[in-house]
UniProtKB/TrEMBL annotation:
<feature type="binding site">
    <location>
        <begin position="124"/>
        <end position="126"/>
    </location>
    <ligand>
        <name>biotin</name>
    </ligand>
</feature>
<feature type="binding site">
    <location>
        <position position="120"/>
    </location>
    <ligand>
        <name>biotin</name>
    </ligand>
</feature>
<dbReference type="GO" id="GO:0005524">
    <property type="term" value="F:ATP binding"/>
</dbReference>
<comment type="function">
    <text>Acts both as a biotin--[acetyl-CoA-carboxylase] ligase and a biotin-operon repressor. In the presence of ATP, BirA activates biotin to form the BirA-biotinyl-5'-adenylate (BirA-bio-5'-AMP or holoBirA) complex. HoloBirA can either transfer the biotinyl moiety to the biotin carboxyl carrier protein (BCCP) subunit of acetyl-CoA carboxylase, or bind to the biotin operator site and inhibit transcription of the operon.</text>
</comment>
<dbReference type="Pfam" id="PF02237">
    <property type="entry name" value="BPL_C"/>
</dbReference>
<keyword id="KW-0547">Nucleotide-binding</keyword>
<keyword id="KW-0238">DNA-binding</keyword>
<dbReference type="GO" id="GO:0003677">
    <property type="term" value="F:DNA binding"/>
</dbReference>
<dbReference type="GO" id="GO:0004077">
    <property type="term" value="F:biotin--[biotin carboxyl-carrier protein] ligase activity"/>
</dbReference>
<dbReference type="InterPro" id="IPR019885">
    <property type="entry name" value="Tscrpt_reg_HTH_AsnC-type_CS"/>
</dbReference>
<dbReference type="InterPro" id="IPR036388">
    <property type="entry name" value="WH-like_DNA-bd_sf"/>
</dbReference>
<keyword id="KW-0805">Transcription regulation</keyword>
<dbReference type="InterPro" id="IPR013196">
    <property type="entry name" value="HTH_11"/>
</dbReference>
<dbReference type="InterPro" id="IPR045864">
    <property type="entry name" value="aa-tRNA-synth_II/BPL/LPL"/>
</dbReference>
<keyword id="KW-0436">Ligase</keyword>
<feature type="domain" description="BPL/LPL catalytic">
    <location>
        <begin position="85"/>
        <end position="265"/>
    </location>
</feature>
<dbReference type="InterPro" id="IPR004143">
    <property type="entry name" value="BPL_LPL_catalytic"/>
</dbReference>
Length: 328
């Protein structure tokens, strides 16, 4: 047999990605394995969420074509300035989590290294939540960036959220808003999430891994496993090109991190406030053993969430915020 099992699965998926019928003989010849081995590998596509249609005399095809990520297409969509900072783009078929993978290899790479994947077996969101990551449907990537001093990173998650929403707007997504601290919503449903992990000292060099997940075309069966209302780009009017969207997101993120290094959060405040989903809304903020009820009043200069309540205005740096719906 030629190649490791994982490599053979990847080659099989790439051959079937066009959505056309391919005979077992053709697939076996191209992969250097027997027809029986082809059939065995086809069965292994089901755990990835890929449905295979097999017809006697015609062969095998996927239920629908796949728009697989392509490194060259992603790089071609970036301008020269971004390419100078993106010193490495690692495209994986499958990983546990792009952020976990990047964390394990961070010492081998300089600032600006990126990991993208078609599939995450253990995608992670904020507050320990699982990020549902079906194969070839959405975007999952992480970027490594090094700053001088973790003490200078206040508000970084808000700046990254602005970078993400501006990138999605640039590919045609409309009516997107931001929910503090860094969720991108469409019609009150989560479209994209951000996870930022920091390691290092307050004054010395620190390592930041920015993880981003964007729902492009979430399969309904996978969407049913998500524990909160969700949306995907198919609803927003955006151009549905995963590679082009990846280029736009990476470009916006890199340029925003450069701006944040120089100027901090203040240069992102107007963009954030213009898209604030919570301003003027009745909100509940959940803490570990308590909650705060009030009206959202935006963010302050440090990116803290302002909640007006009976005893004044509270400035919050943490907490899980939700909009209170009035009983009808």
């Amino acid at each position: 047999m030629n190649g490791e099992p994982g490599e053979i699965i990847e080659r099989l998926v790439r051959l079937l990605a066009d959505g056309r019928f391919h005979s077992g003989e053709e697939l076996g010849h191209l992969m250097g394995i027997s027809r029986a081995a082809v059939w065995k590998r086809l069965q292994q596509l089901e755990p990835l969420g890929l449905s295979v249609h097999s017809v006697r005399g015609r062969g095998h095809r996927l239920a629908k074509p796949l728009d697989l990520l392509n490194r060259q297409r992603i790089l071609a969509g970036m301008d020269a300035r971004v390419l100078d900072r993106c010193v490495g783009l690692d495209l994986k078929f499958a990983v546990d989590s792009t952020s976990a993978h990047l964390g394990r290899v961070a010492g081998e790479h300089p600032s600006g290294h990126i990991c993208l994947t078609e599939y995450q077996t253990a995608g992670r969101g904020r507050r320990g939540r699982r990020w549902i990551s079906p194969f070839g449907s959405n975007l999952y990537f992480s970027l490594l960036w090094r700053f001088q001093g973790a003490g200078q990173l206040g508000g970084l998650s808000l700046a990254v959220a602005v970078a993400v929403i501006e990138a999605l707007e640039s590919v045609g997504a409309a009516r997107l808003v931001l929910k503090w601290p860094n969720d991108v919503l469409y019609e009150d449903r989560k479209l994209a999430g951000i996870l930022i992990e920091v390691a290092g000292e307050a004054t010395g060099e620190c390592q930041v891994i920015v993880g981003i997940g964007v729902n492009i075309g979430m399969p309904l069966l996978d969407g049913n496993r998500i524990d909160q209302p969700w949306a995907d780009l198919t609803e927003t009017g955006a151009r549905l090109d995963r590679n082009g969207t990846a280029s736009a997101l990476i470009g916006s993120l890199v340029q925003s991190l450069e701006r944040f290094e120089r100027y901090g959060l203040p240069c992102f405040l107007n963009a954030w406030r213009a898209r604030d989903a919570l301003y003027g809304q009745p909100v509940t903020v959940q803490f570990t053993d308590s909650e705060l009820v009030g009206i959202g009043r935006g963010i302050d200069e440090a990116g803290q969430f302002l909640v007006e309540h009976e005893e004044g205005t509270e400035r919050l740096s943490y907490g899980e915020v939700s909009i209170r719906r009035w009983a009808s």
